């Protein structure tokens, strides 16, 4: 049976109108409501804190949740570095958080400030295990701070847990001091960071109180 173009386009138009009406109803009437919150990526933050910062309540129309605004609310939390909010029909709001990675800290006026792996201070709090104290008057976000955390981030977790402080005179003079009071001169933070990190791990297994690994291919020591 052949259908005329007029009838065909009439059917298409009717279907389009039906879809449009259904879409408007679903948007306006809370058919898909928020019943569950799925919070991922948190270690320092807790789920209740994240949910509150998102500003979304149970029972809200899931389709009308402003995901951008919810993400902005969670991103205002000190530990939140980046946030993504998405909907999972029929009833779940997903909140994915990437927290700051605290690799270092500084002490000023009896207050401890944590520094992330970008060299930025982001919160005053007790340092987590493995964070290295920076000394030498480091300014947040400065080149020296970024170079310092770049050197720290190159170290393995096992090595970082043995480090007490990193003395920073400038971008060209970085010296690590271990918890057993050994000194390892790193020099400038540069493209050799991975090689220096391997040299650092090696010298920790050897004798000697002072090491120079600024040239990881020519490591020297002064006993």
TrEMBL record:
Protein name: FtsQ-type POTRA domain-containing protein
One protein family per Pfam: POTRA_1
Leader sequence residues: none
Every POTRA domain range: 32-100
Protein location: Membrane
InterPro entries in the cross-refs: Cell_div_FtsQ/DivIB_C, FtsQ_DivIB, POTRA, POTRA_FtsQ_type
Membrane-spanning parts: 7-29
UniProt cross-references to PANTHER family, sorted A to Z: CELL DIVISION PROTEIN DIVIB, CELL DIVISION PROTEIN FTSQ
Organism per entry: Corynebacterium macginleyi
Keyword Membrane found: yes
Keyword Cell division: yes
Keywords: Cell cycle, Cell division, Cell membrane, Membrane, Transmembrane, Transmembrane helix
């Amino acid at each position: 049976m052949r259908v005329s173009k007029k009838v065909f386009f009439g059917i298409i138009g009717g279907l389009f109108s039906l879809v449009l009406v259904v879409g408007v109803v679903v948007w306006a009437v809370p058919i898909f409501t928020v019943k569950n919150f799925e919070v991922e990526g948190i270690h320092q933050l807790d789920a209740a804190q994240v949910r509150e910062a998102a500003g979304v309540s149970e029972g809200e129309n899931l389709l009308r949740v402003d995901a951008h605004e919810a993400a902005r609310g969670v991103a205002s939390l000190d530990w939140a570095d980046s946030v993504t909010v998405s909907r999972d029909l029929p009833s779940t709001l997903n909140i994915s958080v990437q927290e700051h990675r605290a690799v270092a800290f500084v002490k000023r006026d009896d207050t401890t400030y944590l520094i992330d792996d970008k060299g930025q201070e982001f919160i005053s709090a007790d340092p987590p295990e493995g964070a290295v104290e920076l000394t030498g008057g480091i300014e947040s976000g400065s080149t020296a701070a970024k170079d310092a955390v770049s050197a720290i981030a190159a170290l393995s977790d096992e090595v970082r847990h043995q480090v007490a402080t990193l003395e920073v005179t400038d971008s060209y003079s970085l010296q690590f001091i271990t918890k057993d009071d050994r000194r390892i001169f790193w020099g400038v933070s540069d493209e050799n960071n991975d090689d220096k990190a391997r040299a650092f791990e090696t010298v920790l297994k050897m004798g000697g109180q002072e090491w120079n690994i600024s040239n990881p291919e020519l490591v020297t020591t002064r006993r």
